[in-house]
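Consider the following input, taken from an annotated entry for 2-octaprenyl-6-methoxyphenyl hydroxylase (Paramylibacter kogurei).
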Amino acid sequence: MSRIHTDILISGGGVAGLAAACAFGTAGFDVICVDPAPVITDANADGADLRSTAFLQPARNTLRDAGIWAHLERYAAPLQIMRLADAGGVENEIRKLADFDASEISDEPFGWNLPNWLLRREMLNRIEALENVRFIPQTALRRVTTRNDHALVNLDNGDQVSARLLIGADGRNSFVREALGINAQTKRYGQKALVFVVKHSQPHDDISTEIHRSGGPFTTVPMPDLDGAHYSSIVWMETGANASALAALNDAEFTAAAQDRSCDVLGKLTLASRRAIWPIITQQADHLIGQRSALIAEAAHVIPPIGAQGLNMSLADIETLLTLCMDHRDTFGSAEMLDQYQSIRHPDMARRIKGVDMLNRASMTDHDTLKSLRLKGLQALHHVTPLRQTLMKTGLGTD
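Applying the prediction step yields:
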């Protein structure tokens, strides 16, 4: 067994964990990042994460400061307009459109969309260029012991790591959170999300569309054109039974169902990837900190994929924690510093979780009266200019 000393130990090598490793490494901290899964950086490989992530402006800035954005920008599809569509009538057709155009509040798009498998590949390339960052795949935490001045972590490869700060970025079933004795409150919606990529006949024009109908939204997110063809990533939220039935269809049947549910906003659809299915929950950790430890990303919060909030909250966690560590260079990881992280991030997290929970429940409804209220609420949000602009700023995290 070898004993390794480092400034930061990150548990979790997903997009958030790797982004944290790049951010802290670029800022000059010695970083070790471990993950129990193998490295998968090919969209066609078994286990590849086919979801995409829309990075809003503040999250893009964090990636730029971490030296990652220069590697990602050429692959990113801009999101200029966030379009909400209500299709809650008798027929599967759009009754009302509401466009939220970034040009009203900014000279830049709301954000940029990238596939998760590619994010992982480019972040690992960035880590390779950082001499003070080490990524160890297929390695899990086995034991966490914290002291006043360090966290001592035993890995399943036999190594023991002593870190001034342990960061849990290890997902909704976080080992770090459990080891710290932190509870998490979970809400289940009886929903699942089908995730896939389509080629389509009409250009997306940098518009991301959320089509709201009973069961959950059907969201189209622009991806870059390839060889003259138009592509978008789709997140289709449905009740669990319906989602499972859709997942069981053959490709032709599934494409026909997706075509109908899309209300033809992208023209003719052609399935361009395999399909993945994910359970939809809301989850929030009771606390974000322990002795010499902090939780970020899905170890701290999980929300439905609405409004591009999930990973952007995670990048806000990273930005806040990094800023505090830099402000406390000599004492980072101290109780005082971690208390500040808790006081900054937990209230914002709770507010955004509540907002997305309300939006999801409104989208799911099959009650005629509530569907009518949803339509009227959409109209009100769109037609009142100050309210519309405030909503856009809030979504960006610049309010």
